[in-house]
């Protein structure tokens, strides 16, 4: 699959971040999650991902965790206000809201991972 993207490269946001423009063949949909340092909802989402990633069904699913303060140019291309916000192939699957509990966040991270597999 070829990606029609700008020629400039996006800086690496995390150790597992791969510029979507550089992906040639990918059978799984791309997941981007925008986070902020020190955000308790973001930590909860990352813990949910770590737990779900241990399950055989989700072992091949990866999320590109993007700190929006480090990569504002990328974050500004996506419609969101709160963090974490999770997008699967550009479609917003989840945007946290104040008061979301760990169970809600866990379910939404799992829904995002399921969407990447479908």
Question: Would you mind describing this structure in some detail?
Answer:
- With 118 residues, the chain is of the alpha+beta class.
- The chain has a single domain (28-117), classed as Glutaredoxin, CATH 3.40.30.10.
- The chain is 29% helix and 15% strand.
- It is built from three helices and four strands; from the N terminus they run βαβαββα.
- It has helices at residues 40-53, 72-75, 102-117; strands at 31-35, 64-67, 85-88, 91-95.
- The chain has a four-stranded mixed beta sheet with strand order 2-1-3-4, with helices on one face.
- α1 links the parallel β1 and β2.
- α1 packs across α3 (102-117).
- It starts with 30 loop residues before the first strand and ends with a helix.
- Mean pLDDT is 84; it is low at 1-15 and 21-25.
List keywords for this structure.
single chain, 118 residues, alpha+beta, Glutaredoxin, 4-stranded mixed sheet, 4 strands, globular
